Amino acid sequence: MDDRKKSALIGYRYPIALIVLLIAGLLLAGRMVHLHISDRDFLQEQGDARSVRTEPIPGYRGMIQDRNGEPLAVSTPVTTLWVNPKHFDASEEQLALLADAIQMSLPKLRARLKSAEGKGFIYLRRHMVPEDANRALALNISGVYGLPEYKRYYPAHEMAAHLIGFTNIDDQGQEGLELAFNEALKGEPGEKRVLKDRRGHIFRDLQILKEPQPGQNIQLTIDLKLQFMAYRELKAAVEQHGAKSGSVVLLDAESGDVLAMVNQPSYNPNDRSSLDLRALRNRALIDLFEPGSPIKPLTVAAAINSGHYKADDVVNTSPGYLRLGNQSIRDFRNYGAMDLTKIITKSSNVGVAKIALSMPIDTVWSFLQQLGLGQGTGIGFPGEAVGTLVAPREGQRAKIATMAYGYGLAVTSLQLAQAYQVLANHGLKKYVSLIKGGDRLPDEQILSASTANRVVEMMETVTLPGGTGTRAVIPGYRVAGKTGTVHKVGSTGYEYEYMAVFAGIAPVSDPKVVAVIWVDSPSGREYHGGEVAAPIFSRIMGNALRYLNVPPDNIAEGTNDDL
């Protein structure tokens, strides 16, 4: 090709290339305009789908508080670390640092990640302290994420464990009041729109879509200080006597509020790693026992209330025993003729048996039922036992007699405390409650105030010289109560193990507090209610009266400083 043709060809190439570039630019600009105008919403949606996400905002669980607002269960913020194994990418150094941050051995972490290959989600560690979790997140390992959550904490530890219960790792109530009021306590999660980076980490909050709603706070009738006093004394006594278990219930005599409820053995709800399942039982509400002699004042109250007896009536208990078919009912010795007060003072089985047998067969049974024995208290606690109170039939004289002194029926500590609350509150039954200001059934006048007050005065003689409960005395205060030493029932009948029981009221002149205490199977020489349970009552009730600023009503016998 000659030089002239080459020069002409080169001359044509430049404008052709220019035209091609111009056309390409126009096409590209047209496409951009088309995408910007026609497909804008689609592209925006696709872009947001890869960077904007909706994330939950946890709603924290409501607090459980004592009657004075002291926290018994609170929720604290924690961070849960999780991994998307499909996106996980870490150097050897990062992996070692991650294992250290989550307190897991490196081999275990490797094995865990390997077992989850192909999955889109696994937990690394639940409920970490936020500062520790931030250390792990600061490693900027691809596929490792943090999830904000709440964890339950129980400031009272084992002192209130049986009442409060606990939640599981997903913050759902599992035991106690946490379970009973789970729906009210649990929070409602919210939602927010966030912007995430290419690794899936949130780097900007865009919008709150729904505000989280905290759970409802619940205030109990329990007084944490009284709870501590009762727990301390019961634990010491159970250890001292080598007993299997024990329980204490304190009631406000005028309102029916549960002021304290403690059990042994207990557990720490904040650390359940070595939990013995037997320690979970709220024995005051679940364990049933034959109450024994603490029923005797109630039998006497039923007799006076029925009109068949007067307080000064005399019953002949000679010769100290009573035969009913092939069954014998015996006293400690032959007490002879006794009035109703002395029958309580000396705890005469024969005396109360004769009283019950002399009245219509359902007199004692119906009165005990009115007091609340053999039925739920309505307290709303999960698993509460209702007990056993079977009506006697015609001809069942032995059943009528044994019921009169506390055998052949089964009660809980709270049921017995509620029955004594009626005596302490001048015959007016106030349904017991654990929730401050909560709904409860209407009050009932079970017996006259004069009868209730007279029976309380009779019970005072139990704690005076000559009675079975002298170790229940509280310096400066008049005390009424009844001891019980109850044979335990086993698979083959009554065993040679006992429950030491004391049910009492103080002060006698103006009752303010009711207490029921039992200790199961004390193993030493002392096993009677007057030896084991009565001293616990003295210490707990004495501390409670002073704490509640109840004025002494027996200054001549002691001072308010005696402890």
Brief synopsis:
This protein has 563 residues and is of the alpha+beta class.
Structural summary, described in words:
With 563 residues, the chain is α+β, with helices and mostly antiparallel strands. Helices cover 34% and strands 22% of the residues. It is built from 18 helices and 19 strands. It has helices spanning 3-37, 40-49, 92-101, 106-115, 130-137, 161-164, 176-180, 182-185, 224-240, 283-286, 296-306, 340-345, 349-357, 363-371, 397-404, 413-424, 449-460, 529-547; strands at residues 52-57, 64-65, 71-83, 122-128, 144-153, 190-196, 202-210, 218-219, 245-252, 258-264, 314-316, 321-324, 327-330, 337-339, 428-429, 444-445, 480-490, 493-506, 513-520. The strands form six sheets. Strands 2, 3, 4, 5 and 8 form a five-stranded mixed sheet that branches. It has a five-stranded antiparallel sheet with strand order 10-9-19-18-17, with helices on both faces. A hairpin with a 6-residue loop joins β18 and β19 (513-520). α11 packs parallel to α13 and α11 packs across α14. The longest helix has 35 residues, at 3-37.
